[in-house]
Amino acid sequence: MPGSHGAVFARTLSALRDVRLRSELRLTEVPAPTRIAPYAAAITADVIDVTDPEEDLATGRFVLLHDPAAPETWDGQWRIVTFARAELEPELAGDPMLGAVGWSWLSDSLSSRGLTWTAEAGTVTRVVSESFAGLADRAASVEMEIRASWTPVLGDAADHLRAWADMLCTIAGIPPLPDGVVPLPGQRR
């Protein structure tokens, strides 16, 4: 039933649009890639500094794909593709465990919400920028990028968005909310 896949995706997209996250997160629906799957949605997120809302602590993109043909590499009909980036403390530039720690932030965020997934893949990249000559007065900076994709097994797409948002806050340096604490609805752009 080809028409039913569109209806299922529309309901899933509606659930994503209704997700409320921490007040530090600003979500924006953006155009999704069109050649990867028959159905796709994309959301960007910025983690802001509540003391200076003009400053982004981290940024990312969450893409939900649906292909009723269930591509073999996906191991399912749904696929989540994400990107997250944040500036870190310069002393972390040489930490040999930084990549493994970044990946664990993602898997821990999914696990802590009771989600399961399969066919995960991704990279953690560190970018160290040092300035010279006329820019020598700028301090060195370190950015971490986490690119990941996975197929959700347990939990709906909205749950996986919440887990990804948890990870985005973690790389921004914002501690997780304690158990039982519910975030106040954030402002959406």
UniProtKB/TrEMBL annotation:
Taxonomy, superkingdom: Bacteria
Database matches in InterPro entries: DUF3000
Source organism (scientific name): Terrabacter lapilli
Protein's UniProt name: DUF3000 domain-containing protein
Biological classification of the source: Bacteria, Bacillati, Actinomycetota, Actinomycetes, Micrococcales
Pfam family, one: DUF3000
